[in-house]
Amino acid sequence: MDGYIQDVRTRFGHPDPIKPQHSPHKHREIVYGAKAQLIADEIDDSPPLDATGVKKLQGIVGSILYYARAVDNKML
Question: What is the mean pLDDT of residues 22-31?
């Protein structure tokens, strides 16, 4: 299964990152003593996916889930 992730990225057209990213989103600073820390900053107003977008997303998630179950269970 060497190179499986690179093959999945190539199949779905995901470019190589310019700078390594080890987190899915930007870190939010912790505010100690705040009443609530888990408040969403922005409201998502993006349009819903069409049928082809849903199928592509299902293919990506299915490929990575297969790899996680078969090879690297730490991803689960």
Answer: 77
**Residue 26 corresponds to which tokens in the numbers above?**
């930007």
The span from the CA of 19 to the CA of 13, in Å, is 18
| Domain count of the fold of the chain | 1
CA 65 to centroid of chain Cα atoms: 12
> Where would I find the H helices in 1-76?
4-11, 51-70
The answer to whether residue 4 is domain-embedded is yes
Asked whether 67 and 5 are in contact (CB, 8 A), the reply is yes
Q: What is the pTM of this model?
A: 0.65
Domain that holds residue 66: 1-12+49-76
Count other C-beta atoms under 10 Å from residue 9's C-beta: 14
